[in-house]
Design brief:
Phosphatidylinositol glycan, class Q, membrane, 11 helices, transmembrane helix, PigQ/GPI1, transmembrane, mainly alpha, two-stranded antiparallel sheet
Length: about 280
């Protein structure tokens, strides 16, 4: 059950389906409303669900008209190739002298080839799925029957899957950068005659001999000169990750807007404000 609960917590469409079940449970609840506010809330939820389903059916009708799903499927692989080509050019730029910066040549080549290999794996994965993309999109389009918010949540999950390589690049860069920073912090404490006490979770004084200081100096110098190369990769992939997160954030904002907009109350405010006053 743990893998299923983990997947349920990570997929946006699962969260939206859970929210939709809560909305339906509230609408079809046999418990009598104890106050006008509860009755108004139930009416708002009902109108929101009806509008959501209506918009979803309109989207489904648009997708299945004029074979738009087939057109989307045909355009998806070229777009993925174009994105991969842009990332490849970006990695090749980073492997050179980006913005005139002099990077560590050996580490730069290792990181660049590592990320290029992962990019090649992602492109192979997309081309492997290309014969089934139209069928996948057709079944995904059916989720619009449950409402526009479910379709948007599914779109957010598809974006997450299609940009999984960018997420991997970000995680690799972040972990490597954090390791460098942690190593430099530990070695800096060594120069100051300090050490981190794991048991007491504090910094204590410590005396080091000459050999330890010499090795620490060498390691600190190596990590310090390798840090700019790692930081540049981390910065670039963080910006790419933020771009993806921003797109998903806009989709989630639209979903939250449809879920929480009190349409029934707004309609009463515009058409019959005296009922709200009562």
């Amino acid at each position: 059950l743990r893998p299923l609960s983990f997947i349920w917590s990570k997929l946006s469409v699962c969260g939206q389906l859970g929210h939709r079940l809560e909305q339906l449970a509230l609408v079809f609840s046999t418990q009598k409303a104890e106050s006008p506010a509860q009755l108004m809330r139930k009416a708002n939820v009902l109108v929101s669900v009806l509008l959501d389903v209506a918009l979803g059916l309109a989207l489904l009708s648009w997708l299945h008209g004029k074979d738009r799903i087939g057109q989307l499927a045909e355009a998806l692989v070229p777009v993925a190739d174009h994105v991969a080509e842009a990332l490849q050019h970006l990695l090749q730029w980073l492997m050179g002298a980006p913005a005139g910066l002099k990077m560590n040549r050996a580490l730069d080549q290792v990181l660049g080839r590592f990320f290029l290999y992962h990019l090649h794996l992602w492109i192979s994965y997309v081309h492997l799925l290309s014969p089934f993309i139209e069928h996948i999109l057709w079944h995904v389009g059916l989720s619009a029957c449950l409402g526009l918010t479910v379709a948007l949540s599914t779109l957010s999950d598809i974006i997450a899957l299609l940009t999984f390589h960018i997420y991997c690049f970000y995680v690799y860069g972040a972990r490597l950068y954090c390791l460098k920073i942690c190593g430099l912090s530990s070695l800096w404490r060594l120069f100051r005659g300090k050490k981190w006490n794991v048991l007491r979770q504090r910094v204590d004084s410590c005396s080091y001999d000459l050999d330890q200081l010499f090795i620490g100096t060498l390691l600190f110098t190596v990590l310090l000169f390798l840090l700019p190369t790692t930081a540049l990769y981390y910065l670039v992939f963080t910006l790419l990750r933020l771009l993806v997160v921003a797109v998903q954030g806009l989709i989630h904002l639209l979903v939250d807007l449809v879920n929480s907009l009190p349409l029934y109350s707004l309609g009463l405010r515009l058409c019959r404000p005296y009922r709200l006053a009562a």
